[in-house]
Amino acid sequence: MTSGYRIGILLAVCVSGLLYGGIAQGEPEAKTLRGNVARGKTLFVRNCAGCHGTAGGGDGYRLLGQDPANLTAPSTSRKSDAELLKTIHNGKPNMPAWKGNLSESQSRDVLAYVRTLGK
Ligand code: HEC
Questions:
Q1: Count of alpha carbons within 13 Å of 75, Cβ hemisphere only?
Q2: Fewest CB atoms within 10 Å of the CB: 31, 69, 72, 115?
């Protein structure tokens, strides 16, 4: 390996580090939107929209008892990621638990999408 080649690699690593840092700083919501919204939307439409409605308004399929949550409501937006992830993982009496079907990163993708609904 020539030293010029090595310097080239070093430069590439530095530049990508700078780029990454720049993106992370330029996005104040990076922390809450760690998940991928586009992937989350696909998962949501497939798994959640039946009950929560495509726009998350809670206007989907209703069972006896607790109606599906209106995910666009402030009462949901106010909750922490941890709280909402817990509901997605463990379910509620009228909501199935998803931890067996959605991986950790899929749950975060779907949460990222849910976070876009309240705006
Ligand atoms: C069978 C119907 C059903 C399906 C399918 C369903 N949910 Fe729910 N969901 C509910 C119901 C009912 C509640 C309200 C539960 C309660 O408050 O007791 C709820 C509550 C929630 C909450 C909590 C909202 C809050 O403000 O605390 C989140 C987040 C949520 N659902 C996300 C999802 C996601 C994401 C999916 C798909 C992976 C999903 N749900 C699929 C019925 C469903």
A1: 4
A2: 31
